[in-house]
Write a structure and sequence with these properties.
This protein has 218 residues and is α/β, with parallel strands linked by helices. The protein contains ten helices and eight strands. α1 packs parallel to α10 (206-217) and α8 runs parallel beside α10 (206-217).
């Protein structure tokens, strides 16, 4: 699983998101990999008909109806959104909300990608069986220093914790990934995919960097 979080970067503002998603579609098809995009929330509708999964960057524990400003899972699904990130380090939520959202997305047959900062959180939340757990040490996010190089033992320990849980959760690795070498190292250490942001969004040639990452995955 190759997940690209667009955050709120200016590089994909407005119509640029369309070009970005089309590039990702070509890479996904060419290398036969599962590639998903998390656009800024207000741009989701522009690309929700994509041939690859479009995911939200965040969802709220709230209900359909009079809930102004909240992001509702049921309505995302009606807009063809396939799932969401949960508890990203830039948008942390409570344990109670995490549990409710994982169960809600599971009920809706939507993809849940739970972001955690350390192995302790992996062990805590793997019991709820999200589809994916993405381990991202906050201090390495956007640093250009890949967790697979800086803290390789973190990926190994997280992979073992998930394996010991004996359920369907898969591990993703994030934080500081900027090259194909970083990707292949993460896979080698036990990750089943990657969660990346600035390493791709801010690259001068999206096709080139996505190709580099995809080749390293296959």
């Amino acid at each position: 699983m190759f997940v690209i979080n667009c955050k709120n970067y200016e590089e994909i503002a407005g119509d640029k998101i369309i070009k970005f998603v089309k590039t990702a579609e070509k890479i996904s098809k060419k290398f036969k990999i599962k590639l998903a995009i998390c656009p800024p929330q207000h741009l989701i509708g522009i690309v929700s008909n994509s041939t690859i999964p479009i995911l939200a960057q965040h969802v709220d524990v709230s209900k359909v109806g009079s809930t102004t400003g909240f992001i509702i899972p049921e309505l995302l699904k009606k807009s063809k959104v396939k799932g969401s990130l949960i508890n990203h380090s830039e948008h942390r939520i409570s344990s109670k909300e995490i549990e409710k959202l994982i169960l809600k997305l599971k009920e809706l047959k939507m993809i849940s990608i739970l972001c955690v900062k350390d192995v302790q959180e992996v062990k805590k939340y793997v019991k709820i069986n999200p589809d994916y757990i993405a381990i991202e040490p906050p201090e390495l996010i956007g640093s250009g220093k890949a967790v697979s190089k800086e803290q390789p033992e973190l990926i190994t320990k997280a992979a073992n914790a998930i394996k010991n849980a004996n359920n369907s959760t898969k591990l993703l690795c994030g934080a500081g990934i900027v090259s194909g070498e970083d990707v292949s190292k993460a896979i080698e250490l036990g990750s089943k995919g990657i969660l990346v942001a600035s390493g791709i969004i801010k690259a001068k040639d999206w096709n080139k960097i996505m190709t580099d990452f995809a080749k390293s995955m296959v």
